[in-house]
């Protein structure tokens, strides 16, 4: 059955017009075709289509300008831009300007129809809701159910999440450790049409490189030593939902090539399998590194970077969020007090001033640890600076590491820097029961870096 309103195709090449029309009609859509920007705008005003397939290179006018005109008349129109490989950067620009998805020519029929279906599903879901409240929610300066903090920088993040959540665009979250990058990914997923689907998070830096491909794409029984049964990977588990790839810059180059192929074809091929499988997954990735620096150094594929870096979201460090520090601290104090059965009446003025003066190198995660510490070690009442952990006097290192180094024997006998580094890592491994991910978190280094050092030293890992 065809839908009430047609799909508008704005494409100036007659042969492609014919192909797109025939594929869409066979899939049950009614179609209107235009060959110029002027005809496209006229058809949009006459037919009021909700889905527009738009070529960015048109003979009479730039496709980006036409897209802006269409969105000005109907902000909820789903525009899927089409572009050649040489103009992928224009497609990325279009996504940031409000496009729903983009297709790089030549694209496969399945990818084409998947994008149109996703747009159709989004329109169906939004029709079940009241459009006015939906727009207000997207433009709200803050959503306290997702993040705590009312600073302007957080308000901008909420607006970006509200805008990008309804699209198919990949989201690239950057920021220091402890700033809430995974929370941002969860927020995008929760406000999207995929909210009822799975949200699968995978830390690319916490998995040994030789096992990462299996974790992402799965493996078949017997495909390698230890593969005692078939295992679906994270991409398959996220089918119909969102796959969150944390520490994406730690992914090895060979696997980056396979990830790029996955993004281009929406197919996965488990290790040891000869048959690819289609999945419908939205990708959100994150890193605490400088991704452009990794690209310049040849550690991250440039084509993959631009495929992923469509809508960037930068999570600011806590030291740049002003009074958000107090809001986060008060909310944490209330939550931890309830969990521990304690009765705290709030933060004293001196405590507020002290918290605001800190640099917070560990960001929100560090602040939460501080509040948890004082709740556990004190009985209640008004929180004064004396209740805070003593290690806060030194804020150039995470609190727990600062305390340990203050009494560390490392400086008792001079050694080479390499010896000091190895001793510090071995001591941290002992404290964390030889767990590489836990040790890496404590030392604030990448797990993949730690794996390489341990392999070089011949130290047993897990």
Keywords:
462 residues, alpha/beta, Rossmann fold, Helicase, Ruva Protein, domain 3, five-stranded parallel sheet, globular
Structure report:
Helix 14 (324-340) crosses helix 16 (363-377). Helices cover 47% and strands 13% of the residues. The protein has four domains: 7-128, Rossmann fold (3-Layer(aba) Sandwich), CATH 3.40.50; 143-316, P-loop containing nucleotide triphosphate hydrolases (Rossmann fold), CATH 3.40.50; 321-396, Orthogonal Bundle (Helicase, Ruva Protein, domain 3), CATH 1.10.8; 408-457, Arc Repressor Mutant, subunit A (Orthogonal Bundle), CATH 1.10.10. Strands 2-1-3-4-5 form a five-stranded parallel β-sheet, sandwiched between helices. Strands 7-8-11-6-12 form a five-stranded parallel β-sheet. It has helices at residues 14-26, 37-47, 63-73, 88-96, 109-127, 131-139, 152-164, 181-190, 209-217, 234-237, 253-265, 291-296, 302-308, 324-340, 349-357, 363-377, 399-406, 417-431, 436-443, 447-457; strands at residues 7-10, 31-34, 51-55, 78-84, 101-105, 171-174, 199-203, 242-246, 267-268, 277-278, 282-287, 311-314, 343-347, 380-383. It has 462 residues and is an alpha/beta fold. The longest helix is centred in the N-terminal third of the chain and has 19 residues, at 109-127.
């Amino acid at each position: 059955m065809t839908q009430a309103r047609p799909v508008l195709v704005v494409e100036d090449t007659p042969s492609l017009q014919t192909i797109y029309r025939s594929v869409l009609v066979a899939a049950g859509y009614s179609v209107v075709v235009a060959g110029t920007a002027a005809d496209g705008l006229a058809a949009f005003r006459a037919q009021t289509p909700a889905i527009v397939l738009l070529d960015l290179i048109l003979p009479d006018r730039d496709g980006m300008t036409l897209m802006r005109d269409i969105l000005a008349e109907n902000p909820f129109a789903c525009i899927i831009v089409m572009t050649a490989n040489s103009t992928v950067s224009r497609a990325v620009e279009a996504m940031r300007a409000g496009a729903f998805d983009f297709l790089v020519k030549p694209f496969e029929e399945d990818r084409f129809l998947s994008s149109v279906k996703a747009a159709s599903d989004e329109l169906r879901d939004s029709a079940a809701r009241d459009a006015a409240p939906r727009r207000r929610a997207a433009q709200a300066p803050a959503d306290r159910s997702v993040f705590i903090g009312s600073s302007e920088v957080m308000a901008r993040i909420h607006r970006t999440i509200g805008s990008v959540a309804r699209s198919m665009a990949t989201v690239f979250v950057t920021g220091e450790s402890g700033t809430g990058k995974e929370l941002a990914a969860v927020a995008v997923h929760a406000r999207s049409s995929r909210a009822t689907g799975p949200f699968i998070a995978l830390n690319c830096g916490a998995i040994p490189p030789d096992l990462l491909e299996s974790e992402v794409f799965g493996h078949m029984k017997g495909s390698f030593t230890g593969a005692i049964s078939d295992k679906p990977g994270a991409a398959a588990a996220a089918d119909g939902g969102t796959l969150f790839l944390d520490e994406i810059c730690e992914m090895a180059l060979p696997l980056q090539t396979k990830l790029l192929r996955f993004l281009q074809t929406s197919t996965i091929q488990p290790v040891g399998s000869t048959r690819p499988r289609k999945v419908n997954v939205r990708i959100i990735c994150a890193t605490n590194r400088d991704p452009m620096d990794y690209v310049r150094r040849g550690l991250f594929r440039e084509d993959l970077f631009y495929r992923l870096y469509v809508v960037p979201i930068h999570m600011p460090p806590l030291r740049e969020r002003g009074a958000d520090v107090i809001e986060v601290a008060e909310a944490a104090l209330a939550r931890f007090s309830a969990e521990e059965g304690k009765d705290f009446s709030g933060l004293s003025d001196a405590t507020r001033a002290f918290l605001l003066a800190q640099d917070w190198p560990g960001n929100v995660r560090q602040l939460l640890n501080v509040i948890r510490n004082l709740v556990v070690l004190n009985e209640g009442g008004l929180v004064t600076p004396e209740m805070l952990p003593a290690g806060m006097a030194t804020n150039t290192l995470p609190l727990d590491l600062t305390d340990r180094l203050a009494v560390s024997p490392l400086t008792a006998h001079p050694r080479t820097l390499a010896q000091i580094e190895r001793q510090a890592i071995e001591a941290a491994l002992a404290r964390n029961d030889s767990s590489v991910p836990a040790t890496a978190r404590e030392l604030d280094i990448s797990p993949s870096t730690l794996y390489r050092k341990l392999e070089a030293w011949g130290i047993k890992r897990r």
